[in-house]
């Protein structure tokens, strides 16, 4: 850990994007965008074929990539060391705990040195004997070899693999460009060969009918939105596929699943605050769809099936943090909903899991999760843990008539542990403990839960980890991670990669800002639309609280966030640049106003409930304009910034980070450096291979180390 931290090494001149003024007027306000040209007019074509990117845009992006690599060129040894450390913490032949389903147990694993997963199974009886003997390979069938399928491709990612009820077929999807245009194929599990048919431009997952003669999938429309549910009959051409459901509202996305009972296909149409669920009997797949409850504005619900009833998780009747209701299968409308688990303010039900004899829920109170099990008599008991901050998740599995549930527990210091839990005997069986081959001693680290006070008096949770021997005198650098959108919870989970920073003297902290659900659904509502600025001021408050508590000092914080969390990074840079040594904005949603005004972009209409519709509402326009990072870049000193993007990203398009960096360079008065790196062969998730991803993390961590070292030494590298 004694490798010297190198300085930034900048070429004489940073790339300078040509200013090509584009002016437009909204609600009587004139907006000028100097760098709108970086958005390719043929962006739809670029998603499908990156070679169609216009030459002037490609030249600029390649110049940015070269500049970023040059700026970090002295960090080559550091990046190699970081990647080697992170790879050393991965058990390369690791796999999931086999999940039983009828005669087989299914699982995924990696081979030593492999980039992509293997989809496998073993006969259930063989699995049980082999498990008792500690034998992980006897009887194994490799159904799908991700390394072989991805061989020779610059990008490859398996999106899903679903076996038919009779275990003879596997529907699997893959993305080969990073654009999330997935191709579905069908593998014969007797011969382990793919059938000739291909189903293109899908969302990537499939649900079989009960007979295994057809599967359902979600097709993407011309604007890359999941809009239709299709039925594909085996042995037919995709052109003959039947529309089962089509969503008319461009603001709603469609997804599919199946109830835990296996009886029904579920079709959910939803945006960020309204949902509507349709059911289709998998044994009679040409029957009419049954709508559970017609959509009502801001009514959210999800559905499970139990015997002659439906079990529904919903926010109906003012249940802000959700409740569980039941209704007869034959009369599913809201008028027949009866409370099974009433709404309790401050206790958020995050997940519902229904088995033949038990109703299981994952709930959150005071930012800590727990599992609650209810039997047929209505008696309940709780599964929880004692650490100050931890992560807990339910794994649904395949089976319904079982008393077993599976959950995963970890904390920022405790590696992931997978347990099987018997809901009747309450026996807790450890099935797997995450292995850290290079070694990990939890006692060497401290994890804490702190609270910052926001501008309006709200208390904002912070989870953090540092080495036990770290001197808490304010001198330590600190990486502060944040997201705060869509109600997404950032768990205080174990992550081996971050130890490469922590072992070098960093404090690593997660700011659980408004826009997430760490403190319930109201925590989310207080960080969206007109209240979105709370997310940004919460993050700044967390940084200041950590300084006041002696964990770091002003100018020693490196902030990190991605996607909507990248918006948070841009807003924090504009609000309080003095707090930060550096900012990493990963696929950052920073051009918020322009994106929300463009209804043709893939995610814009479905995003209006989250941010507001600035074209329709003058109030929404004013709010977004007040914080949109791109539109609020000012003539001031900015910290070092690393912006990352993906050329084929349909979620946060490549031009958002590119435009933001161009405007920063043209406007700021000092600071930096400002670096932009666009992955020309990947999309929103970056590289797909598990070791290729480490290269990206190594880049981010090298930047964080270099930025914090430069700030400590009082160095301004220029922009």
UniProtKB/TrEMBL annotation:
Gene3D superfamilies: alpha/beta hydrolase (3.40.50.1820), Prolyl oligopeptidase, N-terminal domain (2.130.10.120). Residues 17-431 form the Peptidase S9A N-terminal domain. Keywords: Aminopeptidase, Hydrolase, Protease, Serine protease. Residues 493-705 form the Peptidase S9 prolyl oligopeptidase catalytic domain. GO terms for molecular function: aminopeptidase activity. The keyword Cell division does not apply. Pfam families: Peptidase_S9, Peptidase_S9_N. InterPro entries: AB_hydrolase_fold, Pept_S9A_N, Peptidase_S9_cat, Peptidase_S9A, Serine_Peptidase_S9A. The keyword Protease applies. Belongs to the peptidase S9A family. This is Dipeptidyl aminopeptidase BI.
């Amino acid at each position: 850990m004694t490798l010297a931290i190198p300085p930034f090494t900048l070429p004489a001149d940073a790339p300078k994007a040509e200013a090509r003024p584009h002016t437009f007027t909204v609600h009587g306000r004139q907006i000028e965008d100097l760098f709108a040209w970086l958005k390719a007019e043929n962006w739809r074509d670029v998603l499908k074929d990156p070679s169609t990117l216009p030459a002037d845009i490609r030249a600029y992006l390649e110049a940015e990539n070269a500049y970023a690599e040059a700026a970090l060129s002295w960090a080559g040894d550091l990046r190699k060391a970081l990647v080697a450390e992170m790879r050393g913490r991965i058990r390369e032949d690791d796999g999931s705990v086999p999940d039983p389903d009828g005669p087989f147990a299914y699982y995924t694993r990696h081979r030593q040195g492999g980039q992509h997963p293997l989809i496998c199974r073993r006969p259930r009886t063989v699995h049980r004997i082999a498990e008792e003997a500690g034998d992980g390979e006897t009887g194994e069938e490799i159904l799908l070899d991700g390394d072989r399928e991805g061989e020779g491709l610059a990008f490859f990612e398996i999106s899903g693999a679903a076996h038919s009820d009779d275990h003879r077929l596997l529907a699997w999807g893959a993305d080969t460009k990073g654009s999330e245009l997935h191709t579905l194929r069908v593998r014969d599990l007797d011969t382990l060969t793919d059938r000739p048919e291909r189903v293109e431009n899908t969302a990537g997952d499939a649900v079989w009918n009960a007979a295994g003669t057809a599967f359902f999938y979600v097709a993407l429309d011309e604007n890359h939105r999941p809009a239709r549910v299709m039925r594909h009959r085996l042995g037919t051409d995709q052109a003959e596929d039947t529309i089962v459901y089509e969503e008319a509202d461009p603001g709603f996305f469609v997804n599919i699943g199946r109830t835990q009972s296996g009886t029904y296909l579920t079709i959910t149409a939803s945006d960020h605050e309204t949902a509507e669920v349709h059911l289709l009997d998998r044994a009679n797949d040409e029957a009419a769809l049954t709508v559970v409850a017609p959509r009502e504005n801001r009514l959210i619900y999800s559905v499970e099936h139990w015997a002659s009833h439906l079990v529904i998780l919903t926010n109906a009747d003012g249940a802000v943090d959700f409740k569980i209701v039941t209704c007869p299968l034959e009369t599913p409308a809201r008028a027949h909903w009866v409370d099974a688990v009433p709404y309790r303010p401050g206790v958020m039900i995050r997940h519902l899991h229904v088995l033949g004899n038990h109703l299981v829920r994952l709930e959150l109170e005071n930012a800590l999760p727990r599992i609650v099990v209810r039997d047929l008599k209505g008696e309940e008991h709780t599964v929880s843990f004692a650490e100050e901050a931890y992560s807990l998740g339910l794994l649904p599995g395949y089976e319904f008539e079982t008393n077993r549930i599976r959950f995963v527990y970890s904390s920022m210091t405790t590696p992931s542990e997978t347990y099987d839990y018997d809901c009747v005997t309450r026996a807790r069986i450890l099935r797997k403990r995450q292995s850290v081959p290079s070694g990990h001693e939890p006692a060497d680290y401290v994890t804490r839960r702190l609270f910052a006070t926001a501008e309006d008096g709200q208390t904002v949770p912070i989870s953090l980890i540092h080495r036990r021997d770290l001197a808490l005198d304010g001198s330590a650098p600190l990486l502060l991670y944040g997201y705060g959108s869509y109600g997404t919870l950032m768990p205080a989970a174990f992550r081996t990669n971050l130890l490469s920073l922590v072992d070098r003297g960093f404090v690593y902290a997660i700011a659980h800002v408004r826009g997430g659900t760490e403190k319930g659904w109201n925590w989310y509502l207080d960080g969206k639309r007109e209240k979105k600025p709370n997310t940004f001021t919460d993050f700044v408050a967390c940084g200041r609280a950590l300084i006041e508590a002696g964990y770091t000092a002003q100018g020693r914080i490196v902030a990190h966030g991605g996607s909507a969390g990248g918006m948070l990074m841009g807003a924090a840079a504009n609000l309080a640049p003095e707090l930060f040594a550096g900012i990493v904005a990963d696929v950052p949603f920073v051009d918020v106003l322009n994106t929300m005004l463009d209804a043709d972009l893939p995610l814009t209409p479905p995003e209006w409930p989250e941010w507001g519709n600035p074209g329709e509402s003058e109030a929404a326009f004013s709010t977004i304009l007040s914080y949109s990072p791109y539109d609020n870049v000012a003539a001031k000193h900015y910290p070092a910034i690393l912006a990352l993007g993906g050329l084929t990203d349909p979620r946060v398009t490549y031009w958002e980070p590119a435009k933001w960096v161009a405007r920063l360079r043209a406007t700021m008065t000092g600071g930096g450096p400002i670096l932009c790196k666009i992955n020309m062969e990947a999309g929103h998730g970056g590289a797909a291979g598990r070791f290729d991803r480490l290269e990206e993390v190594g880049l981010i961590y090298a930047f964080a180390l270099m930025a914090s070292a430069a700030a400590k030494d009082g160095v301004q590298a220029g922009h």
